[in-house]
Amino acid sequence: MLKKNITKKDLIKKINFKKGYSFNFSKKLCDDLIIIIIKNIKNGYLNIKNFGSFKIIYKNERIGRNPKTNEEFKISARNSLSFNASKKLTKELNNLK
Residues 23-52: pLDDT tens digits? Predict the structure, then answer.
């Protein structure tokens, strides 16, 4: 059975196993890729062809409610990340069975 979550360490091990790179080089590749993605997303928008696009969206401050106790509390304003999968990725995911 496949794991539901994949960790950075799992990703490094897969790169190490599939490409035959050393563990340290695989870790460096993974770290560099994550840094590049983060830096580009901070510009507001990142599109990776045949994968999808990331966009920063601003969420206003609002009132939230605990459903158990009905206690209201303030949810602070913040930036959030939105991801839209490409048509090709969506098509591939729908063909898995």
Answer: 999 999 999 999 999 999 998 889 999 999
Residue 45, token pair as written in the block:
């928008």
Contacts for 72 with CB less than 8 Å, ≥ 6 apart: 63, 64, 65, 66
pLDDT (0 to 100) of residue 96 = 76
Query: Listing from the earlier edge strand, what are the strands of the sheet with 45-48?
Result: 45-48, 52-59, 78-85
Reduced to 3 states (helix: H, G, I; strand: E, B; else coil), residue 92 is helix
Asked if 74 and 63 count as a contact pair (C-beta separation under 8 A), the reply is yes
pLDDT at 1 over 80: no
Task: Say which DSSP state 4 is in.
Answer: S
What lies within 8 Å, CB to CB, of 11 at 6+ separation is 30
